[in-house]
């Protein structure tokens, strides 16, 4: 459905969501639910594909001194192994029902965090001062990467919480008041138009 090379363009941040939407919709409409065992197997298969590809690419680079760039090719978030892991993790967590005020509080800001961290200003800041690709090449790359991601998420979460407070004090303080006034004004204009038309008709008689 999405042709051309747009999906391969690093500047194209809107391409993956349609793929996820199509995948999830097809699964919900046309496929039988995956069992927990099958989901775990798919996660392991996705991780194995990533590891095997990385080992093969690194071995090829060490032996030939070439092909350095292709070693990272498969790790993009929209590539098959990554999407397979992410999709099946979604299905696994969907099977476990629990209630947590903390999780609900964070989940309420999850989409806001996503939008904030991809805003051009914020994206430029964290990609400049916290470049993940450079951090993971240092010692303890996994810990560095996790700390970097957690820091970015926390900062964006605080910004979204500030947005919630501002909205609560302004726009949401009187929910629907503006639209109620707008509707009342429109209705008043409508009634006045009807009365005016009626008076004109009576006058013409």
TrEMBL record:
The keyword Membrane appears for this protein: yes
Source taxonomy: Bacteria, Bacillati, Actinomycetota, Actinomycetes, Bifidobacteriales
TM segment ranges: 38-57, 77-93, 102-121, 141-159
Keywords associated with the record: Membrane, Transmembrane, Transmembrane helix
The protein's name: Acyltransferase 3 domain-containing protein
Domain of life assignment: Bacteria
């Amino acid at each position: 459905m999405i042709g051309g090379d747009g999906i391969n363009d690093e500047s194209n941040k809107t391409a993956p969501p349609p793929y996820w939407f199509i995948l999830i919709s097809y699964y919900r409409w046309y496929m039988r639910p995956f069992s927990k065992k099958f989901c775990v197997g798919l996660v392991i298969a996705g991780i194995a594909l990533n590891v095997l590809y990385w080992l093969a690419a690194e071995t090829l680079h060490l032996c030939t001194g070439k092909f350095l760039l292709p070693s990272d090719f498969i790790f993009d978030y929209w590539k098959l192994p990554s999407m397979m892991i992410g999709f099946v993790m979604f299905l696994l967590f969907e099977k476990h029902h629990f209630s947590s005020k903390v999780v609900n509080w964070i989940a309420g800001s999850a989409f806001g965090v996503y939008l904030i961290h991809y805003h051009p200003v914020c994206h430029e800041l964290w990609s400049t001062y916290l470049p993940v690709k450079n951090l993971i090449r240092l010692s303890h790359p996994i810990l560095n990467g996790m700390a970097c991601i957690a820091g970015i998420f926390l900062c964006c979460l605080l910004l979204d919480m500030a947005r919630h407070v501002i909205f609560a004090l302004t726009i949401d303080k009187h929910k629907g008041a503006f639209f109620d006034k707008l509707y009342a004004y429109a209705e008043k204009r409508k009634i006045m138009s009807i009365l005016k038309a009626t008076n004109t008709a009576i006058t013409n008689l």
